[in-house]
Design goal:
Strand order of the largest sheet: 3-2-1-4-7-6-8-5
CATH topology of the largest domain: Spore Coat Polysaccharide Biosynthesis Protein SpsA, Chain A
Largest sheet: 8 strands, mixed
Number of helices: 18
Distance between the termini: 31 Å
Shape: globular
CATH class of the largest domain: Alpha Beta
Radius of gyration: 26 Å
CATH superfamily of the largest domain: Spore Coat Polysaccharide Biosynthesis Protein SpsA, Chain A
Number of strands: 13
Length: 504
């Protein structure tokens, strides 16, 4: 039987408890583990509510970087043949795992992904609202990650989700398209989940227009025909452009003191806006049905604003993603561990005199600087928490490292102990994310070079590349789990320079 893990990104919704409870109560084969990826900002340290059960649950932090980054952090730590992605607001029938197992067993070797069927229950006592109908679109959507199982080999081949998609919008279509272009088949399985329309405020449809920037990214990556090859509908964007053009023209003509032409343009804008509003109102609640007046009011004012928001976000995305490179982009920065990687490992060292660079460190940094890469250092210093050294000691040692090896653009350390529960201590992502910010690069444009598994895990959690350079303290299982292992710093730099040329 195929082994699988479940990756469950979350922003801390209460519904997380429900889906985990459903996983614990499955009648069929259990996942090897459930990887809950907590994608709240790192400053949010409130514990997630995780119900007890028989299935092992592991929690990772990804730093609030969006669903694509959270899913990447999850699957890269999984060790199973298949990775099943679920949303944190779905419900699973008791036989979901049985039917998933059957779907995976039926997958031929060239099948890279299996999509589950999604059921969206709609109210029986009234017509659905605009938001409810939008959620119901998941029933026919292609490759929605609300329930999508990928073969890990397929994910690795295409380097997972493109983390430049910041929202839950188009990143799943982009991944499916790249997996398909890589030669894998994508299929629909027989399993089914339930995805309810969660409560939403009046402005939800307006905020959703930010996804138009993702459409611009899809076009930049896959060309103007991306909708046809990606299996997505055309939407109403062209009508939004016409509406904005009419409205803008009316204002411009009025400013030019051409009242007749301005009136014609204003009438065109009003007609297009009214048509849009009517198309949204008619399928929804009618007079006498629950909430109809509120829904009509919401449709009226959002229909006025949505065309402008959609065009603005598309224009913004077109400018921002001009000339964008395929995923993953080249590496621009290297973050190196200190003790055991750049300098000899002296436990809890607070004395600058005892700093000794490893033999290849100076040449390695020289080559990296010569390639134009930005450099940083990320180091755990739990000796501060243990009372063995002070923050000043850490600063003096870090200064000495730079005296010997050259200035580093970012130097980040964690003073906490293993039991402190911080998010900066490796294997958490905090140090890597802080260093990337200090170097003005995206986390996925960084590579972390270190000597133990926590360096690799920190890179994965932050969305960075990782190179493990083993030393006598590196455990065999850490070497086995690493994506890339270099025998020494020279070989590590060779690999980094390859990444700097593009490709993970």
């Amino acid at each position: 039987m195929s082994t699988y893990s479940v990756v469950l990104p979350t922003v801390g919704r209460p519904s997380l408890t429900d889906v985990l409870t459903d996983l614990h109560r499955q009648s069929g084969p259990a996942p090897q583990e459930v990887i809950v990826v907590d994608d709240r900002p790192l400053v949010d340290t409130a514990d997630l509510e995780l119900p007890d059960g028989a299935v092992p649950v592991r929690v990772l932090r990804s730093g609030g970087r969006g669903p694509a980054a959270a899913r990447n952090a999850g699957w890269r730590t999984a060790a199973t043949e298949w990775v099943a992605f679920l949303d944190d607001d779905v419900r699973l029938p008791a036989d979901w795992s049985d039917r998933l197992a059957a779907d995976l067993a039926a997958a031929e070797p060239d099948v890279g992904a299996s999509q589950g069927r999604i059921s969206v229950p709609l109210p029986a006592h009234r017509r659905p609202t605009d938001w409810e109908r939008n959620t119901a679109g998941l029933e026919t959507a292609l490759w929605a990650t609300a329930d999508m199982a990928y073969r890990r080999a397929a994910l690795a081949q295409v380097h997972g989700f493109d983390e430049r998609f910041p929202r839950a919008f188009r990143e799943d279509a982009d991944l499916a398209l790249r997996v398909s272009l890589a030669g894998w088949r994508l299929t629909r399985g027989e399993r089914e989940i339930v995805h309810t329309a969660r409560p939403a405020d009046a402005a939800v449809s307006l905020r959703m227009q930010a996804g138009a920037a993702s459409d611009a990214l899809m076009r930049a990556l896959h060309g103007p025909g991306w909708r046809a090859i990606g299996g997505t509908g055309r939407g109403r964007f062209r009508w939004h452009v016409a509406t904005v053009a009419a409205g803008t023209g009316a204002l411009a003509l009025a400013a030019m003191r051409r009242p007749r032409a301005a009136t014609v343009a204003a009438a065109a804008w009003a007609a297009l806006t009214a048509d849009f509003a009517v198309r949204r109102i008619v399928p929804g609640p009618h007079p006498g049905e629950e909430g109809w007046a509120t829904e009509w009011g919401r449709m009226a004012w959002t229909s006025v604003l949505i065309p402008w928001a959609a065009v603005w976000h598309r224009a913004r995305g077109t400018v921002h993603y001009r000339g964008v490179l395929p995923w993953p982009p080249p590496v621009r920065a290297v973050l190196l561990d200190r003790d055991g990687t750049l300098v000899e490992d002296v436990p809890y060292n607070g004395d600058p005199v005892r700093v000794r660079p490893v033999p290849e460190a100076a040449q390695a940094l020289h080559r990296l600087r010569g390639a134009g890469l930005r450099l940083g250092m990320v180091t755990n210093q739990s000796g501060v928490a243990r009372g063995l050294i002070t923050e000043d000691d850490v600063a003096r040692v870090n200064t000495r490292v730079q005296d010997l090896l050259g200035t580093l653009g970012a130097v980040e350390h964690c003073p906490h102990g293993p039991a402190d529960g911080c998010t900066c201590r490796k294997p958490g992502p905090g140090l890597v994310l802080r260093a990337a910010q200090a170097l003005a690069v995206a986390p996925h444009e960084c590579v972390v070079v270190g000597d133990i598994g926590s360096d690799v895990d920190a890179a994965r959690a932050a969305g960075a590349h990782a190179v493990l350079v083993p030393t006598p303290v590196t455990r065999a299982e850490e070497v086995e789990r690493a994506d890339h292992v270099a025998p020494d710093l020279r070989a590590a730099v060779d690999h980094v320079l390859t990444l700097a040329g593009g490709g993970r």
